[in-house]
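Entry for the shared binder. Reason: the reviewer on the internal report wants the predicted structure included alongside the sequence.
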Amino acid sequence: MTKLNLLLVIALLGSALVLVRTSYEGRRLFAALDRAKNEQRQLDIDYKRLDAERQAQATHLRVEQVAREKLQMRTATPAVTQYVGDRPHAASGVAR
């Protein structure tokens, strides 16, 4: 009878330790999941902000302004346009 009681006490202590370890692991995983969700929310906020900034930078007026100021580009007009036409090949004595 004493051996049976001792065996039952050992089994009880073992199961109690397993229960404590499982509870701890569950809390640890839940905290990690909560941190990951918070990080996901923050990354979503950053993505939306950066996307809005990208759209603001890519407007036609902004691109034209940067082209004029930084790249020193100008609007193509007939006065500054050079037209290139096909010239007839000069007749040469070289046979092809």
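Summary line for the report: The two ends are 115 Å apart (CA to CA).
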